[in-house]
Fold this sequence. Notes:
A: alpha+beta; Rossmann fold; six-stranded mixed β-sheet; disordered N terminus; B: about 260 residues; 11 helices; Spermidine/putrescine transport system permease protein (chain B); membrane (chain B)
Amino acid sequence: MSDSFTADVTESVDAPPVVDTDEPRRQASSIEMQGLHKRFGADTVALDGVDLTIEAGEFFTLLGPSGCGKTTLLRILAGLEDADAGELSIGGRTITEVPPHQRSVNTVFQSYALFPHLSVRDNLAFGLKMRGLPAAERDARVARIAEFIKLGDLVDRRVEQLSGGQRQRIALARALVNEPDVLLLDEPLSALDAGLRSQLQVELLRVQKRLGMTFVFVTHDQQEAMVMSDRIAVLNGGIIQQVGPPRDVYERPVNAFVARFMGHDNLFAITARQGNRLTTTLGELQAESPGAGDLLLIRPETLDLLAGDVTGVNHLPARVTERLYRGSHAEYCLAIGDTTLQATLNNRGRHLPEVGDRVTVVVAPEDLVTLSE
Amino acid sequence: MRKRTLKRGLTGFWWLTLTFLYLPLVVVVLFSFNASNSAATFTGVSLRWYKALLGNEQILSAFGNTLILAICSSVIALCIGCLIGYGMYRHRHRKLGWLIVLIYLPIVLPDIVFGISEMAFFVQIHRLTGLLQPGLLTMIISHVTFQIPFVALIVYSRFVGLDPTLFEAAKDLYATPVKRVVHFMLPTIKPALISAFFLSFTLSVDDFVISFFTAGPESATLPIYIWGAIKKGVSPEINAIAALMIGAVAIAAILSLTMSRRRQV
Lengths: 373, 265
């Protein structure tokens, strides 16, 4: 895949490749953060020492609850906020002190921030105009991005005539048209309804893959983060908790915070261990290669339910207390002694146990994960 | 049935109020076209008083003074008030209570107190330095002082109504500080600036009390001229001036209103 925006645009419309010698053939840029600290006022710590490397061409997501520091980190990348301490470089160039209007970084804002006094076309051309590009080239680039994002006749509308989803795409195009080293996205989909949101997730992902541009995406939605990202950094209290590909973060969370934030509820205290045998509040379980830590994570979708009492390794007798039928799958609440366990069963035409049924919960030893609090 | 009666009563009250407000103006406009110089009986339509206005040099000079005063003071107040409005917006998170009160005090202060203070101030300055002899310059200065709070308030409320992220978007899209002012802030608040200008202009044309205390012998404005003229009795010429002023103020008010309507978009 080419790193050049121009080449991909022409590709996308199936036209013969245009040789555009004015276009800088720019490589995607990596981002390096070292020891970033940021405080607001006397006792609000937004970032408490962030070291992070984002690879060139990566779709990287900063994930965390509100107030975790993810937006502050994004704003520091944009230059809209200054770090109290630490170093920031993009594409090998230190830009800690560079003001936002001199950074080759553009942002898609949560509120879209389209200029109300300008037409859609002038909004798109704003960045190019500020950089002093001649009008002819501005028009050409705006036309190209409009084609690429498939804006159609939106370009000739007024901003106030646009719907939320349309504004979102204009905001994306307004940032992309500048061909920045890095594109920052601050919860750009959070104001949209669910259907449009998943549609735009796919579209955004396609755009990023096609351009090979480095995207840094901020969200508090773990589903969205998993769908979109090459890698995710989970933040809490201004500290990075875990960095890794979505599967790592979801299946092997390093601590209870990450596990809970990724949506896991099945966490059980390990009271004793003997080799691979763990004693937990659920009973005795066999794990394949348990790591350190005194919490056991069981993902609901790794569980199987057998009818009646069956004995074997990692077979636990349980009673169904609640069932939520969701069509493609069913969610179960199970009582094992005094403890509640959640399970998800795929609906593959098999028998789905009813509330009140006695069942046996089965979990494979390799699906058990230990982690620390 | 009762509801309908109430509704009719209220509609009647509305028309009564309008009549109360506008009938005197209608009378003045009507008598400005009176053929005779009687203020009591209307004898026929004529433009003789408007023609008389054109031949009256005192009135023409007063008219000129009024225009110069209104335009100069409005332009200056617009520049200063705009900066103050932006400053208030930028520092809106700080506790500026007392400062805001200081800026708005001229709005609530009685004109007569304001006028006397301005006069006393200019007299002292003149005594000490020989500058600021009462005249158009002192009038412009005092008009600017009472116009500034209105401009600042209008500009401030326009900024407060904006999405604060827009300022960041302008920075993010490579706009230098100067370009941010030229390509973002001024175009965005343009409707507010236009309506602030018209409001200042109207306030200045309208003002008698403050002008009266700060004017010099050569710088009488229309309101001052009228006040002086009616001491000799009401002339139909005065009606003609009044009619013209009503027209001018109405036009300015309508323009200001349409500008602020458009700004809502």
